[in-house]
Amino acid sequence: MVKTPEDLALMRQSGKLLAAVFDMLDTQDLAGRSTLQVNDLVERFITEDLAARPASKGQYGFQ
Questions:
Q1: What 3-state DSSP class applies to 11?
Q2: Of the candidates 60, 47, 56, which has an alpha carbon nearest to the alpha carbon of residue 21?
Q3: Per-residue model confidence as pLDDT tens digits over 6-52
Q4: d(CA 31, CA 36)
């Protein structure tokens, strides 16, 4: 499938957001945290710091 310039721009922006999440996680001491705590940390970072929406939120009934 050939991507349009607009598609590529959206994919590039998505990749930058994901990179920001991984950069934030690299600064955290996650030892001893539950996966739910990590999920909450990441979700808060995405919604508050990045002003974005987690891609899987609401997908297949996932809350």
A1: helix
A2: 47
A3: 999 999 999 999 999 999 999 999 999 999 999 999 999 999 999 99
A4: 13
Alpha-carbon distance values, 18 to 1, 2, 32, 53, 61 (Å): 23, 23, 23, 12, 22
pTM value is: 0.83
**Helix and strand totals (H; E) in the chain:** 2, 0
9: how many CB neighbours lie within 10 A of its CB? Answer: 11
Where are the chain's structural domains?
A: 5-61
Q: What DSSP state is assigned to residue 48?
A: I
Q: What is the chain's length?
A: 63
Cβ contacts of residue 10 below 8 Å, gap of 6+? none
CA distance 40 to 34: 10
